[in-house]
Amino acid sequence: MNRHAWVTGLLMPFECARMALSDILKNRMRSFLTILGIMIGVTAVIALITTISGVSSSISDSFAGMGAGQLTVTISGSDLKSGLTDENLETLEALGHVDGIAPTVSLSTHLVRGGERETGISVSGRNEYWFAAETDIVRRGRAINRLDIQRKSRVCLIGQDVLDEFFYGVNPLGETIWLGGLEFTVVGLLDADFEDADVIIPYSTALKMNSESVVTRFTVYLDDAANSESAQTLLSAALDEMFSYEDDCYEITEMKALESTMDELLGMMSALLAGIASIALVVGGIGIMNMMLTSVTERTREIGLKKALGAQSWHIQLQFLLESFLLSMLGGLMGVALGLLLSLAMCDYMSIRFHLSYGAIALGTSFSAAVGILFGWAPARKASRLNPIDALRSM
Fold first, then answer.
1. Which of 10, 138, 227, 291 suits a disulfide with 34, CB 3.0-4.6 Å?
2. Does residue 175 surpass a pLDDT of 90?
3. Rounded distance, CA 99 to CA 68, Å?
């Protein structure tokens, strides 16, 4: 007898699960509407976190590709010195761990060729070292060389937009264009994916066009990314001396620091959006509790009959708790699948790499399980405490 009771007790959870699943399938439409809130919440959590993970990975790859072993220096200047001369740049280039320096001089002007004219053309002044470091920039033709810098030559490289608008069906190499009223010869084509500027010219020529003689922004290329800290120390000491130790004359930015800040911001955004999306899970949990309380009221006779036939209170409680758990988990699993599909579509639309976040999947499913148990506990408890005599009287 004891053995029979032991076997019955062991099989009871499986029997309760079977009856819970049977009750869910019996009311398919009501069950689906109940789990809809859970499904929407999990879908939002999975889609948002997974998409943001892909965005974060894409940004990190971009920073790693353009920022390894580089320092960006921006000069705000002082009352006596507004920027750095060529001699200053040569002094910095001779510092330890510095492999080369690439100034950047930016301006916006108009471009004229033939009878066509376009305003708002972005022009960037660069030197020969920048082209040596960025080896995939030039698609055809040649890069700017040191002689161009020394002579302040009027040569340029044009981007895809300028090529399409002014040289459609024409080989631009050797042709001339007018930038800001000055004649330039096209010596090269920029890579089609390059979007930093429409036209690149020697930085010395760009300074002349801006009526300037000093550089206020440049990139320092290091011989080894591991020497970044030492290079910053040497660079700061040299710049302090050049600006007579005045405060706030320059700013040194490292791409790793920017990447770390960006990762932190994306992490905060991900947590915030996941928290907002989780509200839908709570709403879904309230829906489950409402359905289960209604179910307890509708099935009062069934509960009384089961108790009269020998069912224990914990059997009833387990059945209703499993029913709530299964409803929540069904919504959670459907939400995970839908969230991954939505995230895949969003990543494809934004042309970023899809990054599967196992943490987001674990969060969505565990949250679903927790909602099912927490919001199903009260209805299950109520069902287990029904008096079988009172329940049978309603028959």
1. 291
2. yes
3. 13
